[in-house]
Amino acid sequence: MKKSLLKIERLTTSFRIGDDYYAAVDDVSLTVNRGEVLAIVGESGSGKSALAFSVMGLHAHARIDGRIYYKGEDLIGMPAAKLNKLRGSEIGMIFQDPLSALNPLMTVGEQIEESLLLHRNGISRAQRRNAAIELLNKVGIPSPERTAAQYPHELSGGMRQRIVIAIAIANQPSLLIADEPTTALDVTIQLQILDLIKALKNDMDAGVILITHDLGVVAEMADRVAVMYAGQIVEIADIFTLTSNPKHPYTRSLLQSIPNSAESGSRLHTIQGIVPSLKHLPRRGCRFQSRIPWIEASEHESEPELHEIEPGHFVRCTCHLRFRFPDSASDAGLPPSADAYSINGEEFRYGTS
Amino acid sequence: MALLEVRDLQVHFPIRGGLFGRTQGFVKAVDGVSLSIEPGQTYGLVGESGSGKTTTGRAVIGLNAITSGSVLFNGQELTAARNRSAARRDMQMIFQDPYSSLNPKKRVLDIIAEPLRNYESLSHKEEKFRAAELLERVGLSPESLYKYPHQFSGGQRQRIGIARAIALKPKLIIADEPVSALDVSVQAQVLNFLQDIQQELGLTYLFISHDLGIIRHMCDKIGIMYRGRHVEQGTTEDIFERPRHIYTKRLLSAIPDVDPRRRERLSAFRASVNAEYENGYADYFDEAGLAYALRPVSDTHLAALPERS
Fold first, then answer.
1. Where do you find CATH 3.40.50.300 in chain A?
2. ipTM value of the model?
3. Which whole-number Å values give the CA distances from A220 to A92, A175, A216, A234, in the listed order?
């Protein structure tokens, strides 16, 4: 049993709209262990980024309830000075959009050095420079000396993302939070970045929270997966269980929506309706109910809870017990006709990129 | 006869610099691309960012000036100015980002009716009727006519963009990353819908995407681009089952696999494809790092293979 690095207990993050507060993250409990990748999956508006920002204490005007223990210390209510010592050193964050995460007026070398300067006492200028070059090297930038002197706008998207990663890992964090780290990137670059995150996890025995909507990325990276819908966790399981035996209707619908036809022209599974907005979220009952109207209301719990259906596998609500797809689509697990491609005689299946 | 035939298309952008902004060189964004699409078919243009796939699509529809080469639409040469305006009606574009491709100050009615106003002189009543009909076709209620883009979700906005694109009953639609900005489940809705209207209206698509899963799902023929040139072209089966070019192989092997049980095998496999790529790079690309001309591998399959192999 690995030691838990981060323990989130009943976290609720609410934003003010008009006169009321609405919970974007609703009663979420999670743990992240050392050397583990926990993926948080969901569509836009599911609260996955709001969760990450809550851990980092980056919500200025939100109301946050619950506990976030990092190595046993509660981050909520921690004095800003102490929190600032942790952020950027013990806890690193890779932001989704590298162009807005980087300072356009500083060279990328200076930006990496800045995080070293803030968190390592008495480090000399020359040491900082060398460390920055070494970091650039580590994230696979071909000519680090030259790149260090460049500004963000001079670099491609993939390179910028690597800079953001270099900054996040500059002080060898124990916990790395990656918010859609490869969403804007091409597949070959994506693969390199994912390999890099894996290597860092192994080298530093760090815990990683990987936030993504891409189930292919999840299958490649995650040890455990938490699926979020409308602010709540609807399913948690290890990656092998989640892909072979998904339970919650939302998880199963997501897996079915991946383009995977053996013959092109076949129809993709779609989820009826839309994700309700924060303000119009049903606060009672199963939040996924309106998306699966063909399932009788009596199948849902009135106050859906996470049930542990097998060790380590939690599913919210009881609607999964009698859930079926309306269009007689294939049942649980990976679609049976998942596409194969073959190169040099070897066959592989894939999801979306 | 092919509906669209592109022959040796070149699109070069000048690099300006120096004190007087003189042209100091050219970026060859599209450097000799040829392709043809039969009526009712979908041609997928794939490549990484900067490969020239979007520029190719924009040049075909006339949003980027063509440096040289020819674009034949229904047998008519589009690079000749007199043919362009007639063909433009039959060619429409769906853009990547539904958040920036709809004018936020216009009502949905005005957005959808704009192409109608340009080409047809309809009365207000007729116009409204046609716009409502189009909205219904894309699965939105007629009340939406008087709403503004910000009142819709991403998937709905993309449908509005599609309604605008099909307003003039075009023959060819150029779809540039039409679902990249959307969530998986919404992606599925829009892709299904694009296939439905293709059937109903007999549309031909030039489908531009970096997502190989979607390309495979949607396309009959596929062209893989790298630095302004094709490295491989063929039917969907040719590309996915018998890829010949090392670049195509590397691209395919990088697609994330949805089955976690294959992780180890896959990573060993990727390493071998990568090794093949690194070792073969000098053979498959010229001194400037560009692909060679396409050579036929079979009746349907072309690859930019080195002379020697």
1. 1-90+173-353
2. 0.81
3. 21, 19, 6, 21
